[in-house]
């Protein structure tokens, strides 16, 4: 399956075009300060931070958002104490993805895994990342139910439909 959905931020009124990349992400400097602004900060998926190590910006993953939030919070505290701000540097901890029931891929700096063990590691890491024991228990029960009941309620199902070339042309004409 090809995942082709983009992540696009909601537009924010009052910002100028030059402060945004073409897909609407806010351009920020190494301190997550929005370009051409004095006190607007953006982080995570919403921003595009082009640094020498990441000239096209960081990947839109949770670790980037978490690490940028940590750095920005520390910079705000430093500011209160009149200390200098620290530029953001992304520490790539690796990637993981589930690709099916009992199937995942794990790509860490020290090990690469796939299959059942990778899937268990994915579950453990993501469960531990959730705040609060109560939330963890509820999410664990929810996952268990989905696993046992084959519950596809939150899954995206796409059925391929064939459109004849002639009909396709008509559709395009209608749109225009
Ligand atoms: C299907 C899918 C799977 C993913 N899997 C992974 C994965 O396995 N590992 C991984 O690291 N990353 C994964 N990601 C990416 C990860 O979810 C994001 O990188 C991460 O959530 C970014 O965090 P964020 O805080 O920047 O944005 P978000 O988590 O998107 O938080 C933004 C919040 O702002 C709210 N919001 C938006 N507009 C407004 C508004 N106008 N006013 C008020 N609130 C607003 C939104 O409702 C949302 O709660 C996945 C993303 C998707 C879509």
From TrEMBL:
<dbReference type="InterPro" id="IPR036188">
    <property type="entry name" value="FAD/NAD-bd_sf"/>
</dbReference>
<keyword id="KW-0560">Oxidoreductase</keyword>
<keyword id="KW-0472">Membrane</keyword>
<keyword id="KW-0812">Transmembrane</keyword>
<keyword id="KW-1133">Transmembrane helix</keyword>
<comment type="similarity">
    <text>Belongs to the NADH dehydrogenase family.</text>
</comment>
<dbReference type="InterPro" id="IPR051169">
    <property type="entry name" value="NADH-Q_oxidoreductase"/>
</dbReference>
<keyword id="KW-0274">FAD</keyword>
<dbReference type="Pfam" id="PF07992">
    <property type="entry name" value="Pyr_redox_2"/>
</dbReference>
<dbReference type="GO" id="GO:0003955">
    <property type="term" value="F:NAD(P)H dehydrogenase (quinone) activity"/>
</dbReference>
<feature type="domain" description="FAD/NAD(P)-binding">
    <location>
        <begin position="1"/>
        <end position="69"/>
    </location>
</feature>
<dbReference type="InterPro" id="IPR054585">
    <property type="entry name" value="NDH2-like_C"/>
</dbReference>
<feature type="transmembrane region" description="Helical">
    <location>
        <begin position="116"/>
        <end position="133"/>
    </location>
</feature>
<dbReference type="Pfam" id="PF22366">
    <property type="entry name" value="NDH2_C"/>
</dbReference>
<dbReference type="GO" id="GO:0019646">
    <property type="term" value="P:aerobic electron transport chain"/>
</dbReference>
<feature type="domain" description="External alternative NADH-ubiquinone oxidoreductase-like C-terminal">
    <location>
        <begin position="93"/>
        <end position="148"/>
    </location>
</feature>
<protein>
    <submittedName>
        <fullName>NADH dehydrogenase</fullName>
        <ecNumber>1.6.99.3</ecNumber>
    </submittedName>
</protein>
<dbReference type="InterPro" id="IPR023753">
    <property type="entry name" value="FAD/NAD-binding_dom"/>
</dbReference>
<keyword id="KW-0285">Flavoprotein</keyword>
């Amino acid at each position: 399956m090809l995942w082709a959905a983009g992540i696009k931020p909601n537009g924010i009124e009052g910002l100028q075009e030059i402060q945004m990349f073409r897909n609407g992400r806010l351009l920020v400097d190494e301190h997550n300060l929005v370009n051409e602004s004095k006190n607007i900060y953006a982080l995570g998926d919403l921003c595009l931070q082009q640094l020498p190590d990441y000239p096209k910006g960081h990947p839109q993953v949770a670790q980037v958002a978490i690490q940028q939030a940590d750095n920005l919070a520390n910079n705000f505290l430093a500011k209160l104490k009149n200390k200098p701000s620290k530029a953001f540097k992304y520490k790539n901890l690796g990637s993981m993805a589930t690709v099916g029931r009992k199937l995942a891929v794990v790509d860490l700096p020290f090990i690469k895994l796939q299959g059942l063990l990778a899937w268990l590691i994915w579950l453990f890491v993501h469960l531990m990342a959730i705040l609060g024991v109560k939330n963890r228990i509820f999410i664990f029960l929810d996952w268990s139910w989905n696993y046992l009941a084959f519950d596809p309620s939150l899954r995206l199902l796409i059925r391929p439909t064939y459109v004849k070339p002639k009909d396709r042309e008509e559709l395009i004409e209608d749109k225009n």
